[in-house]
């Protein structure tokens, strides 16, 4: 009989403070993903209590957000033994991959949305929806604080709080501006339906503004200069859509100003679509060049003024000023303030875990202890292992090198920074709808089979205690990614590095997206929108 | 050889100061109609100059507004010898009779609009469109002053002026609030596409707000109390649409609050739809009663506060206060400020006409002289005669009775007030799309055949000078009117007092409206919207 080893202590720390595990799930939030959280109690303990004490009272699950993760959770949840409360500022789910199409009217906004209430209505589950924003999560009291998302005064009753037994965070992310000055004020983002509608209006506005009499050629050119910042899939798709809109539709209606219209795509890296295969990248760059879309790579935006965008060449450091009429910012996403705040709350727990692991209270862990802690994480969260593999790190030690060179001990700050390194790097799990949807479905499945898995756990063997983990860990399955390039052409990168480019790929894109839509209604509407566009073109009414 | 008779003087006055005629046409503006104006010169003189002097320089026609009248003018104008400039804050034409359907998503907003540029593009006519508001008309300098309708700063270049040879005013009307306090601030109107979209959002907002936790039953009831002010065709159609939306769609999605929803229709008169046949009125009242729509007739709104609407019973004078969640104001329309200002400008001319007619400069016309002036008006403007007939006045004298009892002479103020009486009463020409569209087409036809009619005038014989008037006067041809009543039922009143009510009339309504839509695109979209609604219901996503 030996005393508690460090292994056991560390393992216990994780069981008693599963918040660290939350930290590692929360990271995927930046990709619109999901985090499940059930307060300071491990999942199993909470469940045990529910079975033990309040058999009749349903456990309350609060879902924050109705994006891909939240809706995928709701759609897949089949276990009626929960009382589900959904809080989101939008009373609908939006099929975000079609947002770039909405910006130019190829597809109507209403065709890609479905009310949450109609998604949940037909399920035999108690689901309450509140059109509200969650502005604060209190992990200690297991409470979320919410406020009606309408600008309304109900004498304080527009604010309310909800207790939860389980909290599911799928609030999505916000656009990452890298604190570039002027972006918030002057640029459009492309995160939600409202953004897409605003961009659509703004494009028409530019053409109408340029058609006013008494403007100089110079001014017309400026007004019709559309700048897209970020050469990722969204930026590229938007630039392509805009090009088609201008050449196929607007040029006919605005013949006097059409020659002034210009699209510039700014990318800080060496190539656009750099997460895709090189064949796709070079096809896209060639196509854009033929189309007259001005692609400027190695160009970092340093400031967005009201009518001018300033860029810095990565090579030469030269600063250029581009007058513009409209700018769309699409350089990636970052976590929301509420989630950052929540992460801080659970971040406190890191100190506790550390102190648990820090046997002699020296304020330092030795490297071996630290590695053992992280090994435990890897076991539970296969993504971390994948990440280490991807980075070709043999072990966790190399992760520390960025923070602390070859030190023999790890102090609490290094511990935190190494974990936040994993956190930030874990964003490499693609920040896509696919990931979020799979996470939501995984989580719903866990809730669906909770009783069953409690009795017959199906996860991997536990090393440090007996038995198995209840659930198999989440594994992301990549089904490939599309990059529509305009002119009825698209590129697709499928698993196994299969690459497909051209008109046939665009048809593949049509069929995949039509099949993935959330309801038959949206499916019919989107397909009829596509048909309408083929026949009548895109509408340029400014509504 | 006799000297100039009064007849001749009066007639000359009208030729030299055709502004009075404008006054009589402008009146129909309140119905969304049209006024043609060519400065201080009579049509013929202006035309003569154009032929004589600047053969190559095209005459400039400025069209203000792209409502029914303006667009009907543009669609029917075929004469390429004009340089047409269109100024409107909206770059599209909206098929307004379907606006009530847009408020509840039966039809999508984009399905009922068509860009002005695509309407004019295929015509072989020079048409320039400016998305701007006209804020001032200078009749003396023949100039309109405009400003970009976007909230944009172009260093002053967002403002511009346009000279015109002919000015066509089709700016439409604004909702008439009768200066009831709080209406502008708290009520929705239903004049344009934006209004309809706002109402749609607002209905959903009310249901979402009522679904917040921690509200009392009382508050839920208030929030879901929808008040429609005005029992005319628009108010009735909106109430019916809203009732269908609530019972057919929202009740399913908001089961916990659906029983709180209530619709009240307030009408100051004795009956709703009082311009229709009594059979229609009583059918509508009965149907609304069965549907649970609360119709309160004889109820005048005296104040609209933020959450409460105050009404006064016409009979008893009793004041009641109704808490409400949303109020739609639909009591009719009045002229816009710019048009009122313009009418004041041309109103000055009345003094000139008066002084021309006032032979002995006494400041008074005798009744006989006055009647002769008005006879001339009646000849040119058959509506005035219709009006007199309708009012069962034998002659113009009775018109004066309101202003001046049995006096023998008419002073300038009485002259003005009698004409403004005609003006205000002429609003009895139905304030409908039908009237405006016919006026626009009539005017386009005048422009199309200007050369021809100059040579071969086809109008009625001139009494006081030789020859004929160039154009036959405008005559409104009434094709009947619909009143959709919800639940797939409608009422129609056709010429000759034919009345049709029921489901078959709704189908007649569908086919008439589909055929009247402005383009094949809108036709296809509206019909597919109807189909979509039958299959999938109305969407309640709050976008």
TrEMBL record, chains A, B:
EF-hand domain location is: 345-380
Q: What is its EC number?
A: 1.6.5.9
Sections of the chain in a coiled coil: none
Q: Does the keyword Endoplasmic reticulum apply?
A: no
Matching entries from Pfam families are given as:
NDH2_C (PF22366), Pyr_redox_2 (PF07992)
Q: Give me the reactions it catalyses.
A: a ubiquinone + NADH + H(+) = a ubiquinol + NAD(+); a quinone + NADH + H(+) = a quinol + NAD(+)
Protein family (similarity comment): Belongs to the NADH dehydrogenase family.
Q: What is this protein called?
A: NADH:ubiquinone reductase (non-electrogenic)
């Amino acid at each position: 009989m030996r005393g508690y080893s460090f292994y056991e202590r560390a393992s216990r720390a994780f069981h008693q403070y599963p918040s660290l595990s939350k930290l590692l799930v929360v990271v995927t939030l930046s990709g619109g993903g999901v985090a499940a959280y059930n307060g300071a109690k491990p999942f199993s303990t909470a469940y045990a209590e529910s079975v033990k004490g309040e058999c009749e009272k349903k456990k309350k699950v609060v879902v924050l957000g109705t994006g891909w993760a939240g809706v995928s959770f709701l759609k897949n949840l089949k276990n009626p033994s929960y009382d589900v409360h959904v809080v989101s500022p939008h009373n609908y789910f939006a099929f975000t991959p079609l947002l770039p199409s909405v910006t130019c009217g190829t597809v109507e906004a209403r065709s890609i949305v479905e009310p949450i209430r109609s998604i949940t209505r037909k399920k035999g589950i108690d689901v309450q929806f509140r059109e509200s924003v969650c502005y604060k999560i209190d992990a200690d009291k297991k409470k979320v604080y919410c406020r009606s998302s309408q600008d309304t005064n109900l004498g304080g009753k527009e604010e309310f709080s909800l207790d939860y037994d389980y909290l599911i965070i799928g609030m999505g992310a916000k656009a990452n501006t890298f604190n570039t000055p002027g972006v918030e004020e002057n640029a459009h983002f492309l995160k939600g339906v409202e953004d897409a509608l605003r961009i659509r209006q703004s494009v028409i506005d530019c053409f109408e503004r340029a058609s006013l009499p008494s403007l100089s050629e110079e001014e017309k050119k400026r007004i019709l200069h559309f700048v897209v910042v970020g050469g990722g899939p969204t930026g590229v798709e938007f630039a392509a859509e805009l090009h088609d809109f201008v050449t196929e539709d607007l040029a006919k209606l605005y013949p006097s100003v059409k020659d002034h219209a210009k699209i510039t795509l700014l990318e800080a890296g060496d190539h656009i679509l750099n997460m895709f295969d090189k064949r796709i990248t070079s096809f896209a760059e060639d196509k854009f060049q033929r189309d007259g879309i001005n692609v400027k790579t190695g160009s970092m935006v340093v400031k967005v003024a009201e009518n001018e965008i300033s860029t810095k060449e990565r090579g030469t450091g030269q600063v250029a000023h581009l007058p513009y009429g409209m700018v769309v910012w699409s350089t990636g996403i970052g976590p929301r303030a509420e989630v950052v705040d929540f992460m801080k709350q659970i971040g406190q727990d890191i100190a506790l875990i550390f102190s648990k692991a820090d046997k002699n209270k020296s304020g330092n862990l030795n490297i071996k202890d630290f590695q053992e802690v992280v090994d435990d994480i890897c076991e539970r969260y296969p993504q971390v292992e994948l990440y280490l593999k991807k980075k070709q790190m043999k072990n966790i030690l190399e992760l520390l090198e960025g923070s602390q060179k070859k030190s023999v001990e790890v102090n609490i700050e290094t511990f935190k920074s190494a974990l936040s390194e994993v956190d930030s790097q874990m964003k490499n799990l693609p920040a896509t709808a696919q990931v979020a949807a799979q996470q939501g479905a995984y989580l719903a499945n866990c809730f669906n089979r909770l009783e069953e898995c409690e009795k017959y756990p199906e996860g991997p063997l536990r090393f440090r205690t007996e038995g198995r983990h209840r659930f198999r860990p989440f594994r992301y399955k990549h089904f490939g990614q599309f990059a529509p390039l305009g002119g009825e052409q698209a590129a697709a990168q499928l698993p196994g590095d299969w690459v497909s480019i051209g008109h046939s790929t665009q048809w593949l894109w049509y069929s995949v997206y039509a099949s993935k839509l959330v309801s038959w209604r949206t499916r019919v509407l989107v397909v009829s929108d596509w048909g309408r566009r083929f026949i009548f073109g895109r509408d340029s009414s400014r509504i």
